[in-house]
Backbone:
């Protein structure tokens, strides 16, 4: 039996939910171009598509709103979140808060998934210094994450980001969720498996590292010198290249455009110019393109989120993808149980 480290290139299952990296660039959700969906639909529509193969987001909006309003008034939950925030990383708070749901009613897929999304949003909103919780009629999920004073442009930008985060095939966190689902466990357990996997540095930390790199430079000239120094030291620059996309990450231009639109202060414009400088050098010297995380971290910073909330926001967007894969794996009802290549002593 052939062995592929990390299961690279191994077909580990079948899915109707998305295709990633076809022709080296594309991302499609149930046949729809994900980039085009950011231009024509909201996250709630896309969530409905991914979970229920229906682009009408009305039911997801209704169930999300009901769950969010109930959860925000759940004093026990709020107390748990506030107590955990004092001593735990936001991803740990997220994991525990989602566990609070317990075994959800899975008879209605959209309702069950929207509850997971709602509690993830509540965790992130709890970190806002300004009042939040006032839901916008057009961008319900995005508005639950931002302060009530957020502009329509900010809501639309975050909505696009959530759409691009919503689903991405058999990545590590999604596969972990599917493994849990394959045991006939419940939705909440599968989602928590995804959260735990995404907390790892490899699948979930690139946007944080990219912002830290950009913030380490004072101006584009400083960035140019700094990047070449990193080359000399043979240090990896996070946020470039991709394990599936070979030509371009189609999500990156959407995010980069929003950074350009929202960058209005001198500080923001300087950071954007630094990012473009790093991008240009990586292209000319390493022939590497920026993935969604490079400009993604900059966009989330521009929207006012602290760096340690970047991955929890990823959880919020990806929650519908994990949910869809959970339900698909349960329908397939096949236990995921790969073989291992033994490398120890044959006999003692």
Residues:
């Amino acid at each position: 039996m052939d062995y592929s480290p990390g299961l690279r290139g191994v077909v580990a299952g079948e899915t109707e939910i998305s295709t990633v990296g076809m022709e080296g660039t594309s991302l499609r959700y149930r046949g729809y171009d994900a980039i085009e969906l950011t231009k024509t639909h909201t996250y709630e529509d896309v969530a409905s598509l991914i979970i229920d193969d229906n682009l009408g987001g009305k039911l997801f909006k209704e169930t999300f709103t009901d769950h969010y309003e109930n959860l925000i008034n759940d004093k026990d939950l709020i107390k748990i979140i506030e107590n955990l925030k004092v001593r735990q990383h936001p991803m740990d708070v997220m994991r525990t808060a989602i566990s609070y749901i317990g075994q959800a009613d899975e008879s209605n897929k959209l309702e069950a998934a929207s509850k997971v999304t709602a509690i993830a949003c509540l965790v992130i909103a709890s970190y806002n210094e300004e009042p939040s919780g006032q839901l916008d009629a057009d961008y319900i999920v995005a508005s639950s994450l931002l302060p009530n004073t957020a502009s329509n442009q900010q809501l639309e930008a975050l909505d696009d980001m959530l759409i691009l985060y919503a689903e991405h095939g058999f990545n590590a966190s999604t596969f972990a969720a599917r493994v849990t689902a394959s045991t006939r466990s419940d939705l909440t357990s599968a989602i928590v498996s995804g959260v735990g996997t995404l907390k790892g540095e490899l699948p979930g930390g690139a946007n944080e590292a990219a912002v830290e790199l950009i913030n380490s430079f004072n101006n584009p000239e400083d960035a140019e010198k700094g990047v070449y120094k990193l080359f000399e030291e043979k240090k990896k620059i996070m946020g470039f290249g991709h394990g599936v996309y070979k030509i371009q990450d189609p999500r990156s231009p959407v995010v980069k455009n929003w950074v350009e639109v929202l960058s209005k202060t001198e500080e923001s414009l300087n950071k954007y110019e630094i990012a473009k400088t790093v991008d240009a050098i990586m292209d000319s010297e390493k022939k590497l393109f920026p993935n969604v995380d490079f400009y993604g971290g900059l966009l989330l910073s521009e929207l006012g989120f602290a760096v340690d909330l970047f991955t929890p926001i990823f959880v919020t967007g990806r929650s519908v993808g994990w949910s869809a894969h959970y339900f698909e794996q349960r329908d397939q009802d096949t236990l995921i149980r790969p073989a291992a290549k033994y490398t120890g002593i044959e006999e003692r």
User: Anything to note?
Assistant: The chain has a mean pLDDT of 94. The beta strands are 18-20, 27-29, 32-33. The chain has two domains: 33-199+312-332, 206-302.
